[in-house]
From TrEMBL:
Domain Nitrite/sulphite reductase 4Fe-4S as annotated: residue spans: 100-201
Keyword Cell membrane annotated: no
GO biological process: methylation
One Pfam family matching this protein: NIR_SIR
Keyword Nucleus attributed: no
Entry keyword set: 4Fe-4S, Iron, Iron-sulfur, Metal-binding, Methyltransferase, Transferase
Species in which this protein is naturally found: Lysinibacillus fusiformis
Top-level taxonomy: Bacteria, Bacillati, Bacillota, Bacilli, Bacillales
Single GO term (MF): methyltransferase activity
Protein's name in the database: Precorrin-3B methylase
Gene3D superfamilies: Sulfite Reductase Hemoprotein, domain 1
Length: 225
C-alpha cells in the first residue's frame, strides 16, 4: 500500500526551507483551463530539478519550491510553455471553475474582464475572488472570500466565507442577480471599502463580518438598482 504512512516524502517544502532560501510558486495552466500538457509537466519537473519540490494544492494550482536565486529564470521558463504563475502577497487573486472543460463558456468574457480589472490590486490581506459559471458552483465559489455564481447575464455574490479552520463556513448571499454590466464596479466599490476601513492585515471575512451592518455596505447594494 503506497497511500498512507509508508508514503512520506524525503524532500518537502518544510525540509527545503530548513536548509536554504526557497521560494514557492503557484503554477497552473490558466485561470479557467485546468488541463496541463505533457510539455508543461516536463517543464515544471525541469524547473524543480533535483533541488526543488513539487506538490499539489487546494487552490487549483501546483506548487513548486525552488531556490530563491533561480526564481526569475524559472518564472520565465514556466511562462514560455504557457503556464500561469500566480502573483503572491496581499493582492486580489482570481480563481474560476473550468466552465465544464470549456463547454460552457458563457461567463468566460466577463471573467477575463474581471481578471484584467482586479487581479493584482493591493488590499490589506489576500482576497480570493472565485467565479463559477453556473448554479452548480462545483468549484466551491461560496467558500472563497468573494464567490461569484453566474446565471443568465448576472451573478449572485457571496461574501464572508471562512475558508478554513474549525469555524469554516460558506459565504453569505450578499446580492442576487448583479448584472454583468455592473459587476466590475460593484467589486471595485467593495475593495475600496476594504482598503479604507479594514484594520491592518485584517482578513476580508473578518472585515465583512465586523462591518456588514454599516451603511456603506447598503450603499454598495443600492448602487446597482
Ligand atoms: S460551476 Fe457550472 S460551469 Fe463551472 S464547471 Fe461546474 S458545472 Fe461547469
Amino acid at each position: 500500500m503506497n497511500a498512507f504512512q509508508k508514503n512520506v516524502p524525503d524532500q518537502t517544502f518544510e525540509t527545503l526551507n530548513r536548509h536554504g532560501e526557497f521560494t514557492r510558486l503557484a503554477v497552473s495552466p490558466g485561470i479557467i483551463n485546468k488541463h496541463y500538457t505533457p510539455a508543461q509537466f516536463q517543464k515544471i519537473a525541469e524547473v524543480a530539478g533535483e533541488k526543488g519540490a513539487i506538490k499539489y494544492s487546494a487552490s487549483y494550482s501546483i506548487l513548486v519550491s525552488i531556490p530563491t536565486s533561480a526564481v526569475t529564470e524559472a518564472m520565465q521558463a514556466l511562462r514560455e510553455v504557457g503556464l500561469y504563475v500566480a502573483p503572491s502577497g496581499p493582492i486580489i487573486a482570481m480563481k474560476a471553475c473550468d466552465f465544464c472543460d470549456g463547454e460552457k463558456m458563457e461567463a468566460a468574457p466577463i471573467t477575463e474582464q474581471l481578471y484584467h480589472a482586479l487581479e493584482g490590486i493591493e488590499v490589506p490581506a489576500r482576497v480570493r475572488v472565485n467565479i463559477n459559471g453556473c448554479a452548480s458552483a462545483c468549484y466551491n465559489a461560496v467558500y472563497d472570500d468573494i464567490g461569484l455564481v453566474y446565471q443568465q447575464e448576472s451573478f449572485d455574490v457571496y461574501l464572508g466565507a471562512v475558508p478554513m479552520g474549525a469555524k469554516a463556513q460558506a459565504g453569505m448571499l450578499f446580492a442576487k442577480k448583479v448584472g454583468v454590466e455592473h459587476i466590475e464596479d460593484f467589486l471595485l466599490q467593495m475593495m475600496n471599502l476594504y482598503k479604507e476601513h479594514a484594520r491592518p492585515n485584517e482578513p476580508f471575512f473578518k472585515f465583512y463580518r465586523r462591518t456588514k451592518s454599516t451603511e456603506y455596505w447598503e450603499l454598495v447594494k443600492k448602487s446597482i438598482n
